[in-house]
Amino acid sequence: MNKNIILYSALLIFGVLAPFMLPAFKVQLSILCILIVLALTWNIQGGEMGYNSFGNILFYGLGMYICASAQVGMFFPLAEWTESGGEKTFVHSPTQFFQGMAFGLLLAAIIPTIVAGLIGYAILGLRGHYFAICTLGLGVAAGEISGGIEIIGAGQGFTTPPFPNVGSLESRGQFFYFLSFIVLVLTFITVKSVYSTRFRLVLNAIRDNEDKAEAMGIQTMKYKIIGWMISAFFCGLAGGIMGGLVGYIDSTDVAFDGREMGVFMVLMAILGGKGTLWGPVIGATLFHLFKEGFWTYFLGWQYVALGVLIVVIVIYFPEGLMGWLREKYPERFGEVVDEADRKAQVELK
Amino acid sequence: MKIRNIIITFVSALALLLSTSVTSFAKVVGDKIILGSAISLTGKYSSNGVHTQNGYNMAVDRINSMGGIKVGGKTYKFEIIYYDDESNPKRAAQLAERLISQDGVEYMLGPYSSGLTKAIAPVTEKYGVPMVEANGASRSLFTKGYKYLFAVLAPANLYLDVAIDLAVEKNGGKPVTVAMAFEQDAFSQDVRLGVLEAIERTGSKKVIDDKLPKELNDMAATLAKVKAVKPDVLVVSGHTKGALTAVRQIAEMKVDVPMLAMTHCDAAKLSKQHGKNSQYALCASQWHKTLTYKDNFFKDGMTYDADFSKEFGYAPPYQAAESSAALLVFKDAFERANSFDKVKVRDALAATDMQTFYGNIKFAKGGQNTDKPMVLFQVMCDGDKCENKVVAPTKWASAELIHPIPSWSKR
Amino acid sequence: MDLLIFKVPILMVQASLDGILLGILFALIAYGMALQWGVMNIINIAQGDLVILGGYITYFMYLSGIHPALGVIVAPAIMYFVGVGLYKLVINKVVDRDLFISILATFGISILFMQLMNFAFGADVVLANSEFGTTMLFNNSVTLPNSKLFSALISIIFAIGLVIYMKKSKLGRAIRATAQNARAAKILGVDTEKVYAATFGINAALCGVAGSLVAITFTIHPYMGLPYTIRSFMIVIIAGLGNLPGVAVSGMGLGVFEEFADYILGTEFRIGSVFLLLVLILVYRRFKLSKKREYLK
């Protein structure tokens, strides 16, 4: 346990100091935090519960639109703000900006959670790839439909309120970094504490055999919905922050970005090792590093690299990095291994 | 199992290498002025992104080979750092942040499309980095009070409102009925607002108002409606895909409208891909090679057209021309500011008043170029050879507008 | 809400015909999807990109002066080998695995294809002009481009041809046997590796045909594949696996639904409503089955 405390405090200290040590990388670091949040929450469905969801992007996008709309709508008429031909300029005062952001984030967390609860009963009754495809459809439909709604900018996009002129040039980056870092810490603590209860066992039972779990008297539907609501809560928060960070919301390219974010969250969790606590964290970090690197040095080829990377990850590392390590050093994961048995298995392979 | 070990080693080595080697540029290195730009090399805007990039590169080469930029008695050359924004606003905003805070770039060139410019402008504004952009026409860019944003092009709402005026004029001053089909993106929707205003101004009536999803390559439903209501004008805007799809299906469905007004005809190479079917299409353009503007670097439109065609193997669409003009503006501003200070360069940019081969450039308070009218050209065919001929404004008109478009049964 | 369609009823005829013709083309792509899904148990996200690749083959034939209609013969021939190559390289490693693995792996292939097509062919929107002309019905109030009729006709011919091939030929029987029970087929001497490769090749060839038709009737672009993938998904899911007539019917139904959604809800909600329909259908079927304590398999 001692080792863990040292590790956690070291990470926490690094997290707090990071924007000061690496001031030029604040935005990338904030995005990293958000990616980790998305991967961690996806893992609740995809990893622990065995429900491969492409639909968590729905909550992320909802959170983004809700946060921005609330932030604007609290002080100004929303329709006039988003109407791009509008000649009027509205400027948030610092107090208005932060009040609006706080209120917006609150709603961005609560509303997606409620939505998850409402649609959960209908959609979590689907299993296997039907669930995956249904959630995929949900994400795409949300993107297309929100792109047709005038009050949130429709095809024009939605420019979120600019950061007010307070503090130095660095303030905006620091504000969004700490916001996303706090959400990351909250997510991690929540997920970790949830995983240390019976809840995780129930989720795993659902993954391994849902019918048997039900036969044992577990109300699987209840647990599935609660799991999805937890994911929705944090995805909504992440989306709200991302909207403010990017500064411009487009329905299909930024908010309901299933083609990128929606798939990335799955990949990151798989890369790190789904069904583990640390897997998504490690996977997201590696993925982000890799992507940023390619972005810079292989102009135009980054998608080729990404495509190859995805194929390689999926084919050769379906268990992810953590799974691979576990297979290699099972002792470290607290598994007792019979040496002779292991050798026999290796030979068999 | 071996293959996995190899991959792991390879990937981790690569990741380590990439993450540790942080390159750093500065605003001016030696005799080079570094400009930064996020450009769409991949994704849905990549064809226009490449036009933009070619336009930039062409101007950089030309300026550098013709003596460079003289600041403080020394001669400098331009160099551009490009990143690929993947046609995604989220990525574009991150890249702008990266160019400025990591690479130390202090002067930016714009990306392609209004949406991406909208995403980048708040970032450049925050850091006070002057950005000259050539491809973000959405009017909302110019009403936000941005101080460091300068656009060499006329705002999007002016693209096609002239067409409505023209239709009213041809109708003997009487109001017309208008059918509209616009893609769901920032630029096209802004063109739509301009058209809506023109409709209101002339007392005309909109009869169809369709918004095409971004993925759509089938407009049959919209065109069937057009056939049923028989409007006086059909307006279509949806980047190159919209223009190509519309012309193909109008020809196939034999839709008769007296006037067909569009955007992106030259970028779509309409007359080449559709030949005679594209005849009579009326297109809004920021620039046309026959315009009579002049400058010292590219001489005039015809020379630019020839030089560009020689270098890149295709005739320059206006997206390339306006991008080249952006660099001429930057050069001019640097020399007038005679300094590399961001604020001074910004002030010099704001005071720009010059003529380029692409048009006069003078920025209004919001940053848009108000000194350059849009032109409308019409695709006209002689036998199988089709050409874009300017029909409005009358100052440059090389042909008379053909109105109304003859019906398909008579072609 | 735009109610033009109720004021001008002839539009309903137009919408239905357009929808049916569009749906037949989608059904052809979905047919390939159903085939590989049923036989190999994989879902291929790169389906749409194979379609676009087929379209480019036809486009280049058109550029070099050959009539694009011949593309429906050349494109599948080339695409068959692309498909087999793809199988040997990647797909064979995901066949026996979880369906989700195949979704992700082919998603990677899809990204790769898009980008390579962008490098190879450029990002311009292109099309192949067939110059087929137009058929007018009902005193010119309903127009049907002959290219659409052509594409529907070719789709039907290929679909029927394939059904017959599956029934009569040796390979077709081997494919069907593998679909029913791969292990049993193996025991009885079917080389399942070969069957899988052929299945994927045939699927790619079908995509090639469809791609040619898309280039002839609409426009193509390297990044345009995904909508085709997702629509073929939907068609297969609505029809149910192994239900070939169902694929044809649900394809046409989807096409008609899409056109009517366009007229009634407005063009901006056209694609959104299609996806919402997918969700609703799945949820409906889930509730229907859950009454019997069953679930979608």
TrEMBL record, chain A:
UniProt topology in membrane: Multi-pass membrane protein
Pfam family, one: BPD_transp_2
InterPro entries assigned to the protein according to its UniProt record, in alphabetical order: ABC_transp_permease, LivM-like
Subcellular location: Cell membrane
Bilayer-crossing regions: 5-22, 28-45, 57-78, 98-123, 130-155, 175-195, 225-249, 261-287, 294-317
Keywords assigned by UniProt, alphabetized: Cell membrane, Membrane, Transmembrane, Transmembrane helix
The protein's name in its UniProt record: Amino acid/amide ABC transporter membrane protein 2 (HAAT family)
Species assigned in the record: Pelagibacter ubique
UniProtKB/TrEMBL annotation, chain B:
Start and end residues of each Leucine-binding protein domain: 35-380
Protein name: Amino acid/amide ABC transporter substrate-binding protein (HAAT family)
Entry-linked Pfam families: Peripla_BP_6
CDD domains reported for this sequence: PBP1_ABC_ligand_binding-like
Signal sequence extent: 1-26
Record key words, sorted: Amino-acid transport, Signal, Transport
Family from the record: Belongs to the leucine-binding protein family.
Naturally occurring in which organism (per UniProt): Pelagibacter ubique
Source taxonomy: Bacteria, Pseudomonadati, Pseudomonadota, Alphaproteobacteria, Candidatus Pelagibacterales
Coiled-coil stretches noted in the UniProt entry, renumbered to this chain: none
TrEMBL record, chain C:
Membrane-protein topology: Multi-pass membrane protein
Coiled-coil regions listed: none
This protein's UniProt keywords: Amino-acid transport, Cell membrane, Membrane, Transmembrane, Transmembrane helix, Transport
Matches recorded under Pfam families: BPD_transp_2
Regions that span the bilayer: 12-35, 42-62, 68-87, 99-121, 149-166, 233-257, 269-287
InterPro entries: ABC_transp_permease, BCAA_transport_permease
Localization: Cell membrane
Family statement drawn from the similarity comment of this UniProt entry: Belongs to the binding-protein-dependent transport system permease family. LivHM subfamily.
Protein name: Amino acid/amide ABC transporter membrane protein 1 (HAAT family)
Organism per entry: Pelagibacter ubique
